[in-house]
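Hi R.,

Quick one: here's the HET-domain-containing protein sequence you asked about.
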Amino acid sequence: MVHLTDACQLRESAVTCSLCALIITAVLQYNTGQKFPRTSSASSHRQQELWDVTEFETHLIREPIYLRPKRDFLRRAFPEKSVPNAWHLRGFTAFIPVEGDILTGFVRLYAHSDSDAALSCDVIGRPALPSSDCPAAYSLIRRWIGTCIEDHEMCRETLAGVIIDETSAPILPTRIIDVGPPDGSINPRLVETQNKTSGFYASLSHCWGPANKRPLMTTRATLRDRMAGIAWDDIPKTYQDAIIAIRQINIRYLWIDSLCIIQDDHADWLKESKKMGLVYENACLTIAASHASDSSQGCFFERPRQKNQAVELPYINSTGDLAGSMFAISMQNNYAEISPEFGSLAIRAWATQEWLLSRRMIFYTKGSLVWSCKYITQRETGGSFHSTARNPKWKFIVEKYSARLLTNATDRLIALNGLSCEMQKKTKDTYCYGLWRNSLPDQLLWYCIVPAQRSLSRLNIPTWSWASTMHGICFLNIKKAKNVCKYIRFNKNNGTLTIGTRIKKAPKVTLPLSPNPAGFGEPDDDLTVVRYSTFMEEARNNLPVAMACAIYTNQTEVLGWGILDEGEGWTPSSDIYCLALMSRKGIPSSKIESSGGFKTSFRVSWQEDWVMLLQLSSSNANTFKRIGVGKIFWKSWFQDEPLRQVHVL
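And here's the predicted structure, written out as tokens:
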């Protein structure tokens, strides 16, 4: 809809129109630090002087300012009941025309819970809470939990596919914290249930912090003391805040890893860590201290005073009558402070399975409460968004997890035990050192973002597993390719993969990746154009430059590319072999940009082979270790090679 017919009148209108003034604020906040006009043409950048957003009013043009409503098209008023045919408004986007560009600003709408605008579900935004520890916050949490339990069938199902009866209290974990009554008249204490006691409980997801800030723990020496009672002043702030929160929402028990597992008893730790999947799945709620880097920082952060003033707007109901008010406020540019993915907890490896296994979560961020269940992720202000933390695809999980931090590097695979056990119950698949048997060879095609540093690992993990590296990995983006392996066998006893496929020695490998265009064939040949363009596009967009190498058939002719696990600082000590894993043939009627800058359209017949790069591991000609992955573009390179049985350690 048109808000103002002439954008040049915006400043003058803002003197008397509070909404116009708000639009100016929204534009400045959203575009802070950007230069305009934005254009994809480099020549335009040279010819036209760029200006900062603070100058936008001098570049307005005589065109209308448009407002576009932002609605929840799934018609969710969660945790309240939706009203049929309501607008479900969350805000609007303002579009302001300027010289050579259009600026945008985002405005949030909200209404008070007892207003006609809110009750009708025309406006589903809520006012921001004054703090995370206030009566309104606990009221909202109780409504979130209550509606989820009552209405969300998917939130009753565990990752393993088990349906939980929400009317019946689950068996409590081996040990649990009894937080005492809501008034705090009794100190919290550790209870040993022996898995024979039932009760509704919450779990805590938190950062342990560095060695000099370790949280309160239970050891063999302190077990009896913890069971007798824990003095409030001895409890770190994160634990105190979590206890306060669950007392307010009438949950009696809280599971905290550092207190409920005996930390200096290795046998107890191994036994209980294997049960973590069930602990988080059976919890009524998981509280996540999202932005606390250690246990001393707490869940409840002091919030700065709201800088932006809300503008009161008239609310016109469905019959056209004035029915009270709603409010508009510019959206603050504080995404990192209100998003779990930007908190300290998001880089903790153990949090990966805690977030995926928990059926309901409350994230305490610096600037907002965030609710997340299997149905919806929503901020306290009513805005819902997609949470990557709940993506159950294994390759996505590994990419996130592998780059996160562990207090003990030996937990590289253990910190996924709970998750893998629950997934295995549903899929009946074989878990192979962080990969799944039925997803091989696809899941073997991972690459290192930084040098693997396997020599620093104290774990005896096969080189074909991403868990043998010390840092983050990514998977190659492979589409419409087929498995070319005759068989892949996994030996559980020694971790060896035995693969029946083709293998061939790479004649020449060079680092870093800097192929000569002449190495792709004749300049005027269609296949040359395809190979060179595809190669360079992948090199620019997908390959970590410091890790990539070029593979040649001879001194000049390019065969493909590779990504070495140890990067360019590593020197091959022996021949490199390419083990064929997956293949794709042909790209019909392709439009490819040639090295000359023009696009050409043609039909070509060619082949791509994704390979694991290997070196001999011993004097046995069929036993290898992995050193990287790669891609071969040469159509007939593997054609004359016989099938071989290869062992990868």
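Residues 60 and 98 are 4 Å apart (CA to CA).

Cheers,
M.
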